[in-house]
């Protein structure tokens, strides 16, 4: 089956105002409500999925919390609010994960129901809810309202398979050193340092662990299951998952301009809880030679100790490579005394910013390496743009991502933690940077693999690719559901 081309009206739309003018002139094949967990790493891929659906002729609405509502704005997408019970301050106002999640389940179920019912009497009744897998209660809401429901897993298929096994009882907690390696269908042998960090100490993050396991609580009721990966990236893993539940791989969910280019002017996700310094970063990169800059970012959630910040700082300085490092405002006080003056005062060798447009940076010719925490979104972005990576995982699924970057996809290296100090030492960072950035057999192979994965990512999401076909299957099923329920619009 060939990919469904963008509807003709989309080719002439360049703003949400244009979209609103056209919306009543077209025939939608369904209305999908997309519900992300309200953090940057979850909003981005689900919002991108909503844009993919809209580009194929569906009406797509993103439901988010009142607190994050103003942070989301994307052409062709409607954004509406539901309540998590903390409308003024979100997660911070809740002060604990347990309180936030319980409140979101209670208030979210009620307000999501209200939102679905509000649309029932319009020209565009909601026909399907695609929800972040952290919210299994959203499936119950969908079924209670007689519409379709599908979870969206924002982790890799591998990490989803691991937690699925724990939920099913075939992998027991805590996982100890003597239990390793852990062998799962389609997954390379995983040692303790390759598994999500709290599996050997489940009591350390009880709310997070409960949330991860609850993802699988009612999957048998779901109409589809989506995962932000692609077939050639985790082919054997998805076969193994198929023994338990059937997932459709629809990734990579990164803005179209960086992969297939089929969505007009799709250069960013359309959601930012921070204000990037795009012009300043780009202007600085333009002064640097091709493949000469090390881009460093540990994502929105990771917080490094002061000692590790110092080791990374002096490692970057000693390496001699140009670097651009994203350091959150809350972390800048951990930078060693004299480091800013020594490396970034004139901005000749280094630049430190509090946030930036990561995709634009990774796409820039001057960037030769990505030092990353190996969060799944960052991993997919680096892979989709063909940038070699140095993995510095800290917790959760980042450890598994680093394992695949180094040993499965072979498009980077992974730092070794100094056993004496328990963090990454400066000498280790310098060694890894030299291995990836300098000309040599290992570096050439890494760059060759990075280029290969970039092409495979593009192929998957392009017209007729494996992920594109999976999305088209959803469209065809929704069309059939609409006809059966007499909900098709025209």
From TrEMBL:
Heme listed as a keyword: no
Coiled coil (UniProt feature): none
Family: Belongs to the UDP-glycosyltransferase family.
EC class of the enzyme, as a word: transferase
Lineage: Eukaryota, Viridiplantae, Streptophyta, Embryophyta, Tracheophyta
Organism: Lactuca saligna
Protein name, per record: Glycosyltransferase
Keyword Transferase: yes
GO molecular function: quercetin 3-O-glucosyltransferase activity; quercetin 7-O-glucosyltransferase activity
Assigned EC number: 2.4.1.-
InterPro entries: UDP_glucos_trans (IPR002213), UDP_glycos_trans_CS (IPR035595)
PANTHER family: GLUCOSYL/GLUCURONOSYL TRANSFERASES, UDP-GLYCOSYLTRANSFERASE 74B1
Keywords, in A-Z order: Glycosyltransferase, Transferase
């Amino acid at each position: 089956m060939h990919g469904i081309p963008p509807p003709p009206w989309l080719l002439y739309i360049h703003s949400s105002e244009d979209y609103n003018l056209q919306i009543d002139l077209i025939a939608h094949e369904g209305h999908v409500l997309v519900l992300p967990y309200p953090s940057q790493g979850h909003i981005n891929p689900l919002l991108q999925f909503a844009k993919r659906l809209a580009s194929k002729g569906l009406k797509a609405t993103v439901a988010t919390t009142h607190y994050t509502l103003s942070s989301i704005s994307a052409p062709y997408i409607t954004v509406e609010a539901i309540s998590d019970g903390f409308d003024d301050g979100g997660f911070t106002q809740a002060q604990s994960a347990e309180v936030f999640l319980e409140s979101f389940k209670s208030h979210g179920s009620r307000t999501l129901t209200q939102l679905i019912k509000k649309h029932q009497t319009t020209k565009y009744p909601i026909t399907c809810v695609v929800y972040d897998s952290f919210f299994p209660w959203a499936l119950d809401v969908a079924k209670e309202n007689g519409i379709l429901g599908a979870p969206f897993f924002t982790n890799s298929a591998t990490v989803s398979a691991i937690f699925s096994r724990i939920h099913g009882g075939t992998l027991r907690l805590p996982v100890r050193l003597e239990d390793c390696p852990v062998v799962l269908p389609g997954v390379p042998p995983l040692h303790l340092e390759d598994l999500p960090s709290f599996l050997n100490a489940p009591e350390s993050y009880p709310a997070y662990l409960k949330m991860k396991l609850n993802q699988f609580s009612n999957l048998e009721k779901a109409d589809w299951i989506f995962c932000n990966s692609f077939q050639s990236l985790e082919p054997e893993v998805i076969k193994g998952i198929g023994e338990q539940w059937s997932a459709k791989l629809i990734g990579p969910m990164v803005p179209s301009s960086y992969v297939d280019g089929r969505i007009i002017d799709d250069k960013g996700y359309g959601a930012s809880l921070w204000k990037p310094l795009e012009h300043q970063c780009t202007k600085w990169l333009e002064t640097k030679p091709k493949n000469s800059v090390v881009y460093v970012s540990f994502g929105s959630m990771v917080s490094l100790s002061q000692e590790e910040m110092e080791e990374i700082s002096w490692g970057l300085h000693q390496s001699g490579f140009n670097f651009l490092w994203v350091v959150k405002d809350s972390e800048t006080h951990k930078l060693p005394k004299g480091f800013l003056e020594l490396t970034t005062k004139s901005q000749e060798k280094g630049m430190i910013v509090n946030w930036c447009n990561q995709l634009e940076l990774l796409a820039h010719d001057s960037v030769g390496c990505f030092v990353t925490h190996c969060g799944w979104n960052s991993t997919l972005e680096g892979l989709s743009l063909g940038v070699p990576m140095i993995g510095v995982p800290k917790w959760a699924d980042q450890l598994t991502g680093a394992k695949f970057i180094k040993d499965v996809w072979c498009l980077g290296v992974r730092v070794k933690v100094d056993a004496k100090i328990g963090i990454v030492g400066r000498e280790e960072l310098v060694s890894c940077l030299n291995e990836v950035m300098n000309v040599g057999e290992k570096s050439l192979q890494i760059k060759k693999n990075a280029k290969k994965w970039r092409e495979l990512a593009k192929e998957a999401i392009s017209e007729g690719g494996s992920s594109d076909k999976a999305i088209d299957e959803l469209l065809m099923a929704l069309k059939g559901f609409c006809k059966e329920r007499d909900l098709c619009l025209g």
